[in-house]
Write a structure and sequence with these properties.
Two copies of one chain form a homodimer. By secondary structure, chain A is α/β, with parallel strands linked by helices. The first copy, chain A, folds into two domains: 11-103 and 222-279, Rossmann fold, CATH 3.40.50.1860; 105-220, Rossmann fold (3-Layer(aba) Sandwich), CATH 3.40.50. Chain A is 45% helix and 17% strand. The first copy, chain A, is globular and about 50 Å long. Chain A starts with 10 loop residues before the first strand and ends in a 5-residue tail after the last strand.
Chain lengths: 284, 284
């Protein structure tokens, strides 16, 4: 309501193929409540995971271009598949606007690098993300070994709303038991577990209870928000201090398919009501 | 190998958005082993369930046209979403070729009508099929009441390969308990349960153990194959008798995305090896 004191608020564009990226937006809002946000869920074209690299790059750059046209000054790619397979293409679009891009795979790997003493890391992710070996590759260039486990039932369990549910606990136990056994077989000494899917932060408590206490769980939503805040505070013109006493937490939501479904599912991920979602057509 | 005795074998086109329809093909092969089959899985554009009616109709008619161009003389729509939302559009394309079309929703409702004494029917299906109320509508015109239950975890459990698995048994129990309680609340006296998704025949044994013995389970793959055989035997030129001593079981498989994934998942649904899958581009 009040007029800007030291310039306008930074506008952060957040992109995911669906509503999962709202866990990243939630963490961003907690970390930088003064910023303005534009969230795009490309729900008409999900899931990205089963599509070819060329198609994913085309979808992701189109989505990034939309956020840039809406005035985004910083882009967070809260979609594991797009981060894994199309980050160079997204960066080349954003470069034309002079806008930095942060992807969830690199932030998860950065956090693992900072966290791990043993340099052996476990990753839980969707089948598509595991098949891309994006986390293993990002870990390798940081001097870490990574063992990835596809956990295809966790997204449907979260979307069914079975968060603190005995079935979900059992499924998490089964996946983690298999992952820890594979780690032992491979003579891994893991001390870090990366949640490599934006749906998994909702299962963080269940997962934490299922891993040995020596293994730290990295919530990629939280670490992405923290790294975005650090980067933004270093960029002239987007400095945190310039936000002054602005009113905060303004978010505009866009989806490419059913806004009702986006609202219904999305509120669970965001942890707060979603007032309005605008339908946007990005083509086939 | 042998030459046709009484004319060439009938060619049956089977269409689904993915590999689930292979349970219907499996039942068709058991019912009519002498026929030739052309199976198309529109895997590049799945899931259909989250898309608009206009988009589904466009995808489904394009897929049907492909099967007709390949010489299909009879079409089985083994996709619940396309059967529910685009059967008139598919029929209008097939009519131009003089080809009959059978959809899995109508065959499930036909079987329920023939089976049920109480005229109260339960339906387990995906969220998209339940939201369309296609089974309830098809049951109503046949003088049946239907109570539908969305079971979104069953498809991922089947695709994970957890068929005879304690987690799957527990999930089936939870869904059926809720469905039977809803039936009691609505003063329903159900004696029939329709499996309204082509993935569910793989869970038939688990589901049968979880329902009261008085409730008969209708496997929509089996009843679709039986009704297709009955229709085909009534159509001049496609008569079963004309198949004579032909070699049987010839199937050509087509998919619009990753043929490897189609083979890997598909063999589980078909219950036999899949030698070759051809990639076909039906556009965006």
């Amino acid at each position: 309501m009040s007029a800007p004191l030291f310039g306008s608020r930074v506008k952060i564009g957040v992109f995911d193929s669906g509503v999962g990226g709202l866990t990243v937006l939630r963490a961003l809002l907690a970390e930088m409540p003064q910023a303005e946000y534009i969230y795009l869920g490309d729900t008409a074209r999900l899931p990205y995971g089963s599509k070819s690299q060329a198609t994913i790059a085309r979808y992701a750059t189109g989505s990034a271009a939309f956020l840039l046209e809406q005035g985004a000054q910083y882009l967070v790619i809260a979609c594991n598949t797009a981060s894994a397979l199309a980050l160079p293409e997204i960066r080349s679009v954003a470069d034309r606007f002079g806008v930095p891009v942060l992807g969830v795979v690199e932030t998860g790997a950065n956090a693992a690098e900072a966290q791990s003493q043993t340099k052996d890391v476990l990753v839980m992710a969707t089948a598509a993300t595991v098949a891309s070996h994006a986390y293993a590759d990002a870990c390798r260039v940081r001097g870490l070994r990574a063992l990835e486990m596809a956990c295809p039932l966790l997204v449907p369990l979260v979307e069914e709303g079975w968060i603190e549910h005995p079935v979900t606990e059992e499924v998490v136990d089964i996946y983690l038991h298999a992952l820890l056994r594979a780690a032992a077989d491979a003579h891994f000494s893991p001390d870090t577990l990366v949640l490599g899917c934006t749906h998994y932060p909702l299962l963080k408590d269940v997962i934490r209870r299922a891993v040995p206490v020596a293994v730290k769980v990295i919530d990629s939503a939280e670490v992405t928000a923290r790294q975005a805040a650090e980067q933004i505070s270093d960029i002239p013109g987007l400095r945190l201090e310039t936000w002054g006493t602005q009113d905060g937490g303004a978010v505009r939501f866009f989806a490419t398919d059913s806004v009702e479904k986006f609202k219904f599912l999305g509120e669970r991920f965001l942890g707060m009501p979603i007032e309005q979602v605008q339908l946007v057509d990005l083509g086939g």
